Structure to design on (231 residues):
């Protein structure tokens, strides 16, 4: 079974600084997707960024970028120029490729942004 | 795009009662998922529909749980004879399948169930 591990229960960053959240996963599949989702307090889960395993280029979305190391099964999220609105629980998630469907989530990292 | 809608937002009930939650997916999405999230944990997969067909149920989904998606539109999740351990946030998500590639799942706000 696939597993997703987030080893940092909590992280903090100063506003405008850069922070990196870690994620490792375990799978025997070669075709899969990896995601970072953001869940603000009492609000819905929002997709931050997605990486397809067959793509070597790291995904980027504005201030958010990933470092995807397929051989090491590592998928970290870098948030640049952190903003107060980035404060949330961040979940790393895995999904088999092809016609598969279900997401396997890590336990999450609570990010605090200090003004 | 009105997003995924879940109702109610919060449900408080006594142990042993039955509860039913509703999820309205994004209109063009053919896939619908239910997850359960307990405090301090990431969401865990419960079940999944492709149109009206329920294609997989997790072992987390005991026989007290039943989900339906009539006509492939909205879905309901019913829990019978609720137990303390059922207290959690129940999340619904939807996505559009495109050939054999799955599109990202969009989540609703969730229904928080509290068992007294």
């Amino acid at each position: 079974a696939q597993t997703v591990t987030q080893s940092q229960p909590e992280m903090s960053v100063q506003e405008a600084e850069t922070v990196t959240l870690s994620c490792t996963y375990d799978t025997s599949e070669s075709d899969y997707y990896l995601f970072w989702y953001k869940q603000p307090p009492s609000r819905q889960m929002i997709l931050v960024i997605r990486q397809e395993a067959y793509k070597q280029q790291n995904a980027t979305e504005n201030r958010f970028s990933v470092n995807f190391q397929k051989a090491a099964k590592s998928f970290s999220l870098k948030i640049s120029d952190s903003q107060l609105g980035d404060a949330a629980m961040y979940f790393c998630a895995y999904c088999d490729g092809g016609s598969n469907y279900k997401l396997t989530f890590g336990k999450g990292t609570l990010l605090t942004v200090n003004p | 795009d009105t997003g995924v809608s879940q109702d109610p937002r919060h449900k408080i009930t006594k142990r042993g009662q039955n509860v039913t939650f509703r999820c309205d997916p994004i209109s063009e999405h053919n896939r619908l998922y239910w997850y359960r999230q307990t405090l301090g944990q990431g969401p865990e997969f419960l079940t999944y529909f492709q149109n009206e067909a329920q294609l997989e149920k997790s072992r987390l989904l005991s026989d007290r749980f039943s989900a339906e998606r009539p006509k492939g539109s909205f879905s309901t999740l019913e829990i019978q004879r609720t137990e303390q351990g059922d207290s959690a946030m129940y999340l619904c998500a939807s996505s559009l399948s495109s050939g054999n590639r799955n599109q990202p799942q969009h989540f609703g706000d969730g229904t928080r169930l509290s068992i007294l």
